[in-house]
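User: TonB-dependent receptor, Pseudomonas sessilinigenes:
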Amino acid sequence: MSAGPPSIRLPLLLGLLLGHPAQAEDLFVDETSLPQVLTATRLKQSPAAVPGSMTVLDNELIRASGAREISELLRLVPGMMVGAISGNQATVNYHGTNASEARRMQVLIDGRSVYRPGLATVDWSDIPVAMEDIERIEVFRGPNTVSYGANALMAVVNIITRSPANSHGTRFKVTRGQRGISDWYASQGTGWDGGDLRLSMSGQEDDGFDRRLDGSDYRDSKRLNRIGLSVNQMLDERQSLDWQFNAKEGSNQQPYTYRPVFYGVSQQGNNSDVVAKDYAGSLRWNLDIDPRHSLYIQGSAQHWDRQKTWRACDAAISFSPELTRLWQLNPNYAERLARGIKDFSEDKAPPASTEAEQAIAEQVLSQWRKEGKSTVCGLIDQSSRETRYDLELQDTLSLADNLRLVSGMNYRYDRADSQTYFNGTLDDSTWRLFGQLEWRASEHWLIQGGAMYEDSQLTGHSLTPRIAANYLINPRHGLRAVYSEAVRSPDMFENNVNWSYRVTGLDRPVYGQNSAQYFVKTRGPGNLDQERMRSRELGYNGYFVDQALNLDIKLFYDEISRMISEPLRNNQYIASNSNSARFSGTESQLDWQLDRNDRLRLTYAYVHAQASNRLDRRLSATNSGSAGWLRNWGQGWSSSLFYYGSDALNGYRFQRIDTRIAKRLALGRANLELAGTLQQRLDHQPTTFADNRYDSRHVAYVSAELEF
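Assistant: Predicted structure for TonB-dependent receptor:
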């Protein structure tokens, strides 16, 4: 893909699109008939009126893509960088930053955050929602702390599930294919006077990548089962209740990566798999006070449980109290001594900074010469549990015909529990106040402003504003200028980590103990500031009625300061706010219903990334995009063809073509759909990291879905 200067492309395209006389029917259209989006400001708005860039992945597009993972769907979003850490662990960033720690994007399910509080990640493979239950995905492409608080730094992904009222009947679906693909789905929906319910169950399996760079097998398969219950109940003409329950359990294989620190110790472990369990429940009360005023109160609870136990072997000196003291005094010196202890064992220890360090080092060498070099094995429990309770009140009010206000407050309590990462339990509580005002200043001008005040027990308070001006050529065509600020709070791990490994079940006592603490210990600084982002955007969104064509174009310039870029590791982890990054460029997306049978969809992003830390440039492709063609052939036949491409994700090109062919059959009162999907890589590159390799460049799978 090639790209010209963004400053030339946008005026040229706008001139071509808007230079022709507008049709009378296009100038005086009723705005309420336009498609509405909610994620941008919490107000229902037409795409031309949104203070930012939106991408909506509707149900037809989701189905036609043949995607099995939510992360795969996000390849259809311009500027979204989608990669893989392993076969069961996707990494998704908007515009980029670190390839392995994606922690700057808010992800919601029906408005409920699934962004984990302790390690600040989104487990894309473990989200407890089946693809078949998703109605659409709204993606706000840009900072949105104003609406969703800290951590909505670069984008917001809102996964909106199907209403129970639209889910009546029975559905069964099975999918089988290469690479161990084995998925299933079943749901039952019903209704009664004033209420509707959907119960769904699903499962998913695959083998992940085939091999590592050295040719060895790659342990990265996944297996999971999910259950979801969604209920809507009308209490009277003005009140209703929505409640949901979701649960997921499964296991994710992980390659054994532990390497003994000390010379002469062989690796004797082969299993570090993760057993993952997620639970979430929410209850929402909706009240329509009058046609101009409504509010809701929503409470939710979530729990993430990751169980991981593995076997480790190292020299007995690893558990030396003296080596532990030396690490606490001078980690660099302690690591130098440990790594080269064989060379130092016959001579004196290397010179230390102080006499105290030198004396301790001599004691460590004495222990090594005696029994310290013997191998000891035991079990390490690297499990973690995270819990979140959330309570939110939101009020939506039309103050006048041309003035709307959404405001509210939120309280959230987070707790993380891990003996490995936190040496116990760590908790945090956060209060938020937010407001967004929309003022229709004239027939053509729409002015919007908002702010959120947030106060966190661990990271302090912040105030983030946004202001936008939309010039509506008519209700279907709008130009926008947006300035916004956003923050990301350092997560519990970055700021307050207390990382150490306790080894239990030792095969022999060490220093008089059957369990012992490894000498390496990592402590977080505890005083990190919030990352801060300033974003400027110019854009256009338009819908051409006669052509059934929707177009969105965006120019952006984003600056992130006080970035925390250090990788999360248990080896001299020194986090700081000393990094920064800039992202500038252009994005465009086109969705064109050519006729009743054909739909064309194109996206493209040019991203120029600059960062003080090279790690924050790893997942930024300069050129990326997608192209899709959906076709209804008649007589129940349909097909779709998608291309996904990026010129460099962590240094590796990605190009793939996905083809799906489906046949729908009427079986009395039931419908059966048979479909086949083929994914074909066009390049010979690994996926994101050197070890992520397949034996074949293609994978095929088929599905059968029955509805009645």
